[in-house]
Specification:
The protein is built from 11 helices and 12 strands. By secondary structure, the chain is an alpha/beta fold.
Amino acid sequence: MPSTITTRATTVLGSNRLLESGRLRGKRVGIVANPASIDQDFVHVVDRIAQADGVTLGAIFGPQHGFNADLQENMIETPHGESAAHRVKVYSLYSETREPTPAMLDGLDVLVVDLQDVGTRIYTFIYTMAYCLTGAARAGIPVIVCDRPNPIGGVAVEGPMLEAGFESFVGLYPIPMRHGLTIGELARLFNDTFGLGADLTVEPMTGWSRQAFWDETGVPWVIPSPNMPTLDTAIVYPGQVLFEGTMLSEARGTTRPFELCGAPGLDPNVLAKALNGYRLPGTQFRPVSFEPTFHKHAKTLCHGVQIHVTDRRTFEPVLATTAVLHEMRQMNPAEFAWRPPPYEYEHTLLPIDILAGAAHYREDIDRGTDPRRIAESWKPAVVEFERLRQQYRLY
């Protein structure tokens, strides 16, 4: 007989605490959610709100990839619709608007946000939340953000800061690539530090430790977006997402997006040997070949590396990716290219610049600056951010 594995949840999510408190009773509620908005019993927050005594589900709002997360590619807008199960409007916040309009919010007493972030500045769900704070403030509607774990922990902070002039939907505010905060803590920081003006309440979790990675929470993993299939993906993502700013493959169209990376004209063995020569903490680079089924280099054999994280607590994802980009650029400069705009509603700036948060990251890669020197350059700003984030930590 097959064995049954039972994992006891040690973390109680903000959504559970909110619904058990009864504070939504008598209210017409709008909810911002997607398939990852479940609790430890696999019950979706929309269903819990719809079934709650005395609570009226008024509207559903979906982030990038849609409420059902069924649109694979980036930059494909989601249409508005209706929930057949609950007979309410489903509004897309990745459409002609990223901010809920007064018409969408009309008749609601409160807007609840229950989205799963992955701990990286460019993940658009945190800006959907920010736009919800702004839109709700304009409409005079309070917002409750239900807190969820940062899957890659709340200790490490790493990477370049977003600088003025490089704001976009993959980076609205000056925070580092790996920010080390939960979505609730980010809501407090955004609303206070950047003056969004919302009547904000964050419903905290219980039983979550900043040192915990997702698989230590007991909460089931549901992919928050189509190319974030596993915790392993989330761990490398703060660095590997920079590949979206290149014409190299980040392995979308494979079963290991972001863990694999490469291009047709590379020698994987030479590349892996060079990267392992850095002796970067917590990682090993293995030579690979792969063929994406879609996206960049679709149906074309690519060669590169897989990033194997051997110690996730010492692993520095942004440094690791910086080393990969540096070595790929040095190995094959004729075929190394930055992706041109448009990218995520930005039509002028290069995608790599809005992803990295400034132009000097790209310029350093182009001039062949040692990756460890590049990493040193972002550390003073990270120290300043550490002082800021201490004010908004809930755990």
